[in-house]
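Weekly modeling sync, notes
Attendees: AB, CL, MP (scribe)

Item 1: holo prediction request
CL wants a bound-state model with iron/sulfur cluster before deciding which constructs to order. AB pointed out that an apo prediction alone won't tell us much about the pocket. Agreed to run with the ligand included and paste results into these notes for async review.

Input as submitted:
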Amino acid sequence: MSTILEERKDQIHLSGQGAIDIACNRESLAGAVSQRACVFCGSRVVLYPIADALHLVHGPIGCAVYTWDIRGALSSGPELHRLSFSTDLQETDVIFGGEKKLEAALDELIDRHSPKAAFVYSTCIVGIIGDDVEAVCRKMSEKKGIPVLPVQSEGFKGSKREGYLAACKAMFRLIGGGDTSDVSPVSVNIFGDFNLAGEIWIVREYFRKMGVQVVANVTGDGRVRDIARCHGAALNLVQCSGATLDLARMMEDKYDIPYERVSYLGIEDMADSLYKVADFFKDRDPGIVERTQALVREELEALMPELARMRRDLEGRKVAMYVGGSFKAFSLVKAFRHLGMQVVLVGSQTGTKEDYAELEQITDPGTVIIDDANPLELSHFIKEKDVDVFVGGVKERPIAFKLGVGFCDHNHERKEALEGFEGMLNFAREIHRSVMSPVWQFVPRRANRAGRNRKEAVNE
Ligand code: SF4
């Protein structure tokens, strides 16, 4: 495999070929052109959906452009989050320091947009020149009377995972100040859902039917006021591999609020997540288990016949997926099994040893498991495995397009709601449309193969 660098070989594993001991959770190999995003990007994607906050990127304009409104996080109210502000640091600021510019930017922007809070993101250059962002934020917070929170997300200081932690630390400073007097004992916070294409509204509707109050969305369709009082909830529900897990742990330590890991993707994981919540509250609300069972039954009755119809076409087709956090991959492997499809490659940017061990358990023998991949490696395996559809995000899309392979956007840019039972149906329809498109018989890869098959048939 000439495309796999020697130093990368211990980050790739074939399912079923001995005990898995994949090297992961470490810095990307220099020169390997990793698919990973930087620390700043990690914190930006977590905090971005807080819709009534000001998001100011302290750094050169390129960092802000990189994350400007590329996410599909919807808001039911204010849309300040969709504006990305930058201090646009120049050469003179790098030499003499950018604190004055930061202060002036905050002064102007807070007056102009009246946000409920402001997040100030440190980028690489700010870490290098050593601006005291904390002191500027403190001063502006006192002057303007709103929380102004530094996000210590200098791009170079680790992987995207460090960015999640920086975002959690910033949000943690918001929590605790809000009024919790009207919070029900049967209440949750939704962590790690970013309301892509309105997904959090689907999940909130399930909880409403179950009789569970949602105190705060962290962070999809998020509001500063809700986050400030989210310490009143009885339970934190943490979706996604790591984006908000640190925040849940901090809240468990300080406020004694337990958390559950959940996933709203796919049939089993969606139902399991609802049942976990019902089980947690069954002593406080004895009818909750029955209501949850009725909800799941009703949803499945509508969904399963549709899936069975699409499965007939999709049976045996091959899938590759590359995701940010591997927790999502667990749900997707199960979802594809419902469609009769075979997952032949699964990788993630930030998976841990435990995550990969679980992937090894749930995937078929021969599946490639890969940590922190690059475009060459992904292309190599997609061709080798003759994949029908590739599931990924904005950075994986061009790989699929260039190889002539179907693509499903399952990242933060998606415009189709894929969570919940309703989202599973959307997902199946999207995969079905992509895989069954007649266009694939004309792309060179498939056309050549069809030609070869015809020639062989004639020779026989
Ligand atoms: S923070 Fe650093 S790595 Fe991230 S986009 Fe800015 S310059 Fe690039």
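Recorded for review: The two ends are 33 Å apart (CA to CA).
Action items: CL to compare against the apo run; MP to circulate these notes.
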